[in-house]
């Protein structure tokens, strides 16, 4: 008898689907949370005798076990038990020290690995499964989604597969995929699925727009973090928030009901798996997670609770445009104004009329500093015009100029 204990996300369920295609009724599949796996494995070890079940095989995919269970598994294998753990998270690489551990982050051809893609290769290499076009396509879609490569390569079908997974009950999704992989040459969505996926796409867009107005910003340790409460669409939400707010080092998504925190980043210089490890979690460099412990709750929920959400930049401006060398106006909390302009090949930032004691090499660098340190947002045109009028009147009265000397204010006012 074969046993598979896997994660309860798309990649974990993908392992279960191809396992059932390989072994049929000869495999018992159980899906687990990260922490639920340890209890599941402990029960298996307690009730399974190597002498009574010498041919039983335990597969563990897309999850790693706690240190105490790790030791028990090794003893079980040394006594003759059969175990194969297959994972792709770099936080589990130490399990390669055991003969039963196979943790691979990157395939030989350079593609980022997923548990489903690794398990698929394993089943084929050991003669349990034959390669097929439909299976290849399904496994690749799972891999693309789980590694976030679908965004880079614009493989929308991978995202839609995950959407369908969350729209259906696990048993229904599993049975649909198994039947399709067994009976069809290629992988596809049927007409009904395409329709409900189109409807789901609209729902996701509305959900993300709402959450954009709820995200807050704070520093946790050395990182500037965006924090948002959300129960659904974590990958899509984090991707959009990371693109809209690139000055944030990473996005922390808190699911209070599930007591989980997901960490996502779009930056190469930030490894969220290292951050997750600090709080007892793990994962990938760009996508990780952990349980909301008392420490996590204090840092990411209680301490920043009173903060106001990030204000969105003005989006319909004609005059106050980012990157304009003559000057761009930003607002901050407490009616503070920050004005950034180019001078002698550098960018100067004035805070309430006083220049900061340092300059920036580019507009993007200046904006990043302002957004991280002052929480600024791009002013609307009417606020920008009002500021120019006031400045123009002060200059007419021979007061101290606050705008760069090369700015032709009179001409700018005429243009507007």
Automatic annotation (TrEMBL):
Ranges for domain Oligoribonuclease NrnB C-terminal: 327-396
Domain of life, per lineage: Bacteria
UniProt region (Disordered), positions on chain: 397-416
InterPro entries documented for this protein: DHH_sf (IPR038763), NrnB_C (IPR058608), Nucleotide_metab_enz (IPR052968)
Signal peptide range: none
Residues passing through the membrane, by range: none
Compositionally biased residues, Acidic residues: 406-416
Entries under PANTHER family matching the protein: 3',5'-CYCLIC-NUCLEOTIDE PHOSPHODIESTERASE, OLIGORIBONUCLEASE NRNB
Protein name: Oligoribonuclease
Natural source organism: Paenibacillus glucanolyticus
């Amino acid at each position: 008898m074969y046993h598979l204990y896997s994660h309860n996300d798309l990649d974990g369920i993908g392992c279960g689907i191809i396992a059932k295609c390989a072994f049929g009724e000869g495999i018992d599949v159980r899906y687990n949370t990260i922490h639920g796996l340890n209890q599941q494995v402990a029960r298996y070890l307690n009730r399974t005798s190597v002498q009574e079940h010498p041919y039983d095989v335990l597969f563990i995919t897309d999850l790693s076990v706690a240190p105490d269970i790790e030791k028990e598994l090794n003893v079980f294998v040394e006594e003759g038990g059969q175990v194969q753990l297959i994972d792709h998270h770099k936080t589990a690489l130490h399990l390669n020290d055991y003969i039963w551990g196979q943790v691979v982050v990157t395939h030989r051809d350079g593609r980022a690995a997923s548990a489903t893609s690794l398990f698929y290769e394993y089943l084929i290499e050991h003669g349990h499964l034959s390669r097929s076009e439909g299976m290849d396509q399904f496994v690749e879609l799972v891999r693309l989604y789980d590694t976030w490569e679908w965004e880079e390569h614009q493989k929308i079908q991978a995202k839609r597969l995950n959407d369908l997974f969350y729209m259906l009950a696990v048993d229904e999704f599993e049975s649909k995929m198994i039947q399709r992989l067994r009976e069809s040459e290629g992988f596809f969505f049927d007409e009904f699925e395409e329709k409900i996926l189109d409807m789901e796409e609209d729902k996701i867009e509305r959900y993300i727009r709402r959450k954009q107005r709820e995200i807050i910003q704070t520093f946790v340790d050395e990182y500037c973090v965006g924090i948002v409460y959300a129960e659904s669409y974590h990958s899509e939400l984090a991707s959009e928030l990371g693109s809209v707010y690139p000055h944030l080092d990473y996005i922390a998504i808190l699911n209070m009901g599930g007591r989980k925190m997901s960490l996502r980043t779009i930056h190469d210089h930030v490894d969220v798996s290292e951050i997750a490890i600090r709080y007892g979690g793990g994962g990938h460099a760009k996508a990780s997670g952990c349980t909301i412990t008392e420490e996590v709750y204090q840092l990411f929920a209680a301490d920043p609770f009173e903060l106001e959400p990030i204000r969105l930049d003005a989006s319909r401006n004609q005059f106050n445009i980012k990157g304009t060398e003559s000057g761009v106006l930003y607002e901050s909390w407490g009616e503070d104004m920050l004005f950034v302009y180019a001078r002698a090949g550098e960018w100067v930032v004035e805070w309430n009329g006083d220049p900061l004691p340092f300059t920036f090499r580019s507009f993007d660098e200046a904006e990043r500093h302002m957004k991280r340190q002052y929480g600024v947002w791009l002013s609307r045109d009417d606020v920008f015009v009002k500021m120019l009028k006031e400045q123009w009147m002060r200059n007419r009265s021979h007061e101290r100029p606050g705008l760069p000397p090369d700015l032709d204010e009179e001409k700018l006012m005429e243009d507007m």
